[in-house]
Amino acid sequence: RTRPSLDTTVLRSPNLTTAPARRALVAALHSVRARVVSIGIPSGTPSPQSTHASFAAMSASCVAPAAVSASAASRAASLRRAPNARRLSTCRAVAAHAPIAPNEMKPPANLHGFKLVREEYVQEYDAKVFLFEHLKTGAEVMSLSNDDENKTFGVTFRTPPENSTGIPHILEHSVLCGSRKYPIKEPFVELIKGSLNTFLNAMTYPDRTCYPVASCNLRDFKNLVDVYLDAVFHPRCVTNEKTFLQEGWHYELDSPEGEMTFKGVVFNEMKGVYSSPESVLAREAQQALFPDNTYGVDSGGDPRVIPDLSFDEFKEFHRKFYHPSNARLWFYGDDDVGERLEILDGFLSEFDREQVTSQVATQPFFTEPKRVVASYVAGEGEEGEEQKSFVQVNWLLNDGPFDQETALAVGFLDNLLMGSPAAPLRMALEESGLGEAIVGWGLEDELRQPTFAIGLKGVASADVAKVEALIEATIAQIAKDGFTQAAIDSSVNTIEFSMRENNTGSFPRGLSLMLRSLSAWLYDGDPVMPLRFEEPLAQLKARMASEDVFTPLIKKLLIDNKHCVTIELNPDKTMAKTQDDEEKARIAKYRAGLSPAEIENVVAETLELKKLQETPDSPEALSCVPTLLVSDIAREAKSIPTDVSTIGPTKLLTHDIATSEILYAEHLMDLHAVPMELIPLVPLWCRAMQRMGTSKRDFVEFDQTIGATTGGFSLSPFASSIRGTDDVAAYLVLRGKSTAAQAGALHDLMGEMLLEARLDDRAVFKQLVDESRAGAESRVQSGGHSVAAGRLDAMDNVAGYVNEQLGGLAQLDYLKKLAKRVETDWDGVVADMETIRAAVVQRAGSVTNLTADAKTLESTAGAVETFLNSLPATGVGAVTTPWPTTLLLPSQNELITVPTQVNYVGKGANLYKAGYDLHGSAYVINKLLGTTWLWDRVRVVGGAYGGFSDFDSHSGMFSYLSYRDPNLMKTVANYDATVDYLKDLKIDDEELTKSIIGTMGELDSYQLPDAKGYTALMRNLLKVEDSERQQRREEVLSTTEKDFAAFGETLEAARAPGAKVVAVCSPEAAAAAQKERPDLDFKVTKVM
Predict the structure, then answer these.
(1) Which in 166, 459, 955, 1047 has the greatest CB count within 10 A?
(2) Active site residue 247
């Protein structure tokens, strides 16, 4: 399923202008949680409990990464950051010559206008590195060559803004809207339609803009590179103001008597960002830490300031910074180095060398700590509950990037302080009872000067000072006591395992390395240095064996550091109205200064822009974009090696795949065994099982043992419909990984948790409830599209209902009640959790899935069997009757209100219940809708950040969804008009070919070994046979124009009275929708 949150086809250009956003993507990149990706969970969602499997299960990509323990949290990846990617594709590398070992590779004979500055072999990634400089322009090129077929290219410019008008962000959107060689509205979208890319996007940072692409198909890769290079160096947006108006901001007025508003994709995106308290906190912190350099403004754009930006300023920013002399270019993979240079010189040689002033100035250190008090938009809240504050303490750590050994040491320190629930600083805050959840990103080292931040959200006003005091006292105590050897061993193994595994989940490894290299390269440092870790790691381990490495760092960086800023962010119930009134007053003032003729001109410009947006490029114009042919696609579906057998009552799936002697293990237990009334408690039970220790050892020792001996493990629920039946695949999923030598320890610890975990610590459980509630509220506010989709599913099918209880709005309601019950009926809560354990921990109905090479599978078989034999044969009190098919939410239109300036609009219906029989063409049509009709109407014309459709081929549920949308009922009208669009669609062969190829790129997604094993597991659970996958593949490849019209008829179900609308919006937007469409009889559900 495709419910995106950040970096996706429909949500172009993730805004990485705050540390939490970058850190969330880092966590995704390094697979630090067991989670399902690309089938229904937005990035950053901590567990697969609300996931639906998609048509990807029928092809390749059902899920990706393996588990890393929650105890080995994202700090394991904090040594070097990297944003996440989007989707994966078919991989058919083409080697022009016999392969040469990277360490034996020589530079090409013809350097095509470049000079070789440096060459090295990086053993850590078996890569030969050439650093080139373009003689004519000074552009720098990092060229990495190895046997990775997932080739990556990127061009990065330093783009430091001087204000918060959002120039870098708007320009990043705009350059992809047509160029000299590709003079159409959006080549980016055409590439999405018809490319096999494994990554295609662009990212705005506080000081840089990155344009990376990746593909496993060499021809496709070269196409992507060509389009992106032409886009950044020769964009049409600097001569076509309409693009600036569309992507940035403009006054919109449909008639002289109508309401005038601000409209623009980035403008509206940032209104959504500023509706999130966490985003506001991050911006306040960054700007307070860096008042004197470019980090003191918002490169993403402040909605209050974006309308100050002029087109002339926009053009000048591109002229100044988008020049080869300011470019850092990156190639990675198995393509030819000489061809790389030839491609680049074809673009760079048009330019002459210029002196571009783009360096990021050093922020001078403060002589005294500072404090900032600010506000965030708050709702009315629950009756009788106080709206609470955020408190975060922030430090600037250095005057520039750390050297490699110091960076490694600080990364270890970050992990030791905060990297797991047992880490002392994190533990002290979480168990203090002073707040609901941790905020702050810990170590942030992607910018020129590293920072550290920690705090709490959900803090009562009376406790704000206590939080600051607790942070100060805890850090001082840690410096006094030091870290235990067990804590250090755990941290070392966690980080070293992550480094050596190099598991980037669904994202190209080349992208990860590019962003790692940029952490030094961007600031004129050594671009190779961040890629090495063996030698500095050995040196650091030697130092740790002979001296106290961390106490001096704590004292220098935190205790004695005066460059410290405390942010107190308080709720303001009037802030939303104040901001709305200010925006309306600004527009009214502008309008009052216009003559009638000038007002008519605004109307004319509005209509002209809409006409341009709604007018498609001609087929002749579109033909300029390079594409592959259907004949380039293999007709036979790839299979994953799978052996199915049994160990006693447990079904066993094994996958003989090379994994560098790492065992990836999943153990599934039947969730149907849990009484339905206890299903909403399961997510909290999963967390509690991992947070209270066991009968053998306390929580800290247990957590540190996991970190010291394994790659980690996690526990979470999963549920999905199974096509063609009323059955629901529902399991408790225990996912873990370790080296072959430690498989016994991994399974011993798994068994100890399942059978002997304590569940009686009320203080810890209360904190888990508070954390979960805070996270759920944040997801409603910032990921409302997923919430809306979950509600629609829950009205339609049992799996949707179960997922709603596990992770949707129903889960949030349950958490609110559970928080009170913990205080009044703790014994009852404990009894319920023990009931869950007794029922679900059993061999009956269990499935074990193992992925490793044959030797590792053989050597670890004994440990696996011992673990399984330790489990009870049957559960005590296990439910044995199937879930009734009537287990659904009431079917009704619903408006879910939260404090927000944007909407998330969903509408859906079940196509199978309307008589539709699944055909592979549905995937092609869904793909096309997201890149044509919905993209144009909801995003381009409507101004939403994203608009897309989602077809769950297992349940039959078809949903329309929008993201950060200024409209509500207008968007619903666009959804309904999809039917007519498809019925009337005339699609030429070239457009059809693009859609088929783009669909195949998603079906044949590139996967790392652990992802392949989990994909095979999902296919087995959801009863997807290889023969059916082949059938769907043939149907995709043979899709015709007639299929689109036929599917349009099918989609009548999605605009019939039985289709339902669910939207997350503000109270004001809800009232307007009720007034506009009283016939829909909306139920209004207030959340915050």
Answers:
(1) 166
(2) yes
